[in-house]
Amino acid sequence: MHDDAPGSSPDDAPVDDHYFTARPASADERRTITVRLAGRDLELETAGGVFSPARLDLGTEVLLRSAPAPPQEGDLLDLGCGWGPVALTLALESPRARVWAVDVNERALDLVRRNAARLGIDTVRAVTPDEVPDDVALAALWSNPPIRVGKAALHGMLVHWLPRLAPGAEAHLVVQRNLGADSLHRWLAERLGPAATVTRSASAKGFRVLRVTAGARPG
């Protein structure tokens, strides 16, 4: 699940086969692409029916370039993992952490598992949202959220996951400016209130990166 913004390619999932469906209807034609993650050039597997199968999309690139180094330990979450660039970066940069790659798209989850195995990574858990145990407190959350699911669904997703940040932990969300980044910033600040601080940590190539820092939990 990701921001459906410029950076998507013509061979991304068609309108009738959204990348945020559980079982894409398009043919599962696998391909290998070369991308640079965590300072390394990697050959990874993608397929139609997932977000940006032909390349690393621009929004995710902005997120990966601007977010700080992730915590070295704890539970890290890639919300809307697609074929895995964010989750794999987290795992490569924080090999002692456990990385949750969350998506509703079963093809995307299979690609993440295969790409993690291709890189010899055994710390990534590619799962659907309800497979993350309730007692997991997140040390970090990175996401290029799925704007195309609609405002209500997007807000519901963020309200579910952001409160799972441990006190002091940070989420970094990349959103295209002309697809509502500033209005989402205002909504998050109002909705989370004193439970978190919301700031803009970066702005590049038409995208905003929003940082949500969790406050102390009430007694």
Give structural notes.
The structure is a single chain. By secondary structure, the chain is α/β, with parallel strands linked by helices. It contains 5 helices and 9 strands. The chain has helices at residues 58-66, 85-93, 106-118, 151-161, 181-192, and strands spanning 30-37, 40-47, 75-79, 98-102, 124-127, 138-143, 165-176, 196-204, 207-214. A 7-stranded mixed β-sheet has the order 5-4-3-6-7-9-8, with helices on both faces. A two-stranded antiparallel ribbon has the order 1-2. The radius of gyration is 16 Å and the shape is globular. The chain starts with 29 loop residues before the first strand and ends in a 5-residue tail after the last strand. Mean pLDDT is 89; it is low at 3-17.
Set down the secondary structure blueprint.
Elements (H helix, E strand, L loop, with lengths): L29 E8 L2 E8 L10 H9 L8 E5 L5 H9 L4 E5 L3 H13 L5 E4 L10 E6 L7 H11 L3 E12 L4 H12 L3 E9 L2 E8 L5
Parallel strand pairs: 3-4, 3-6, 4-5, 6-7
Antiparallel strand pairs: 1-2, 7-9, 8-9
List keywords for this structure.
219 residues; alpha/beta; two-stranded antiparallel sheet; globular; disordered N terminus
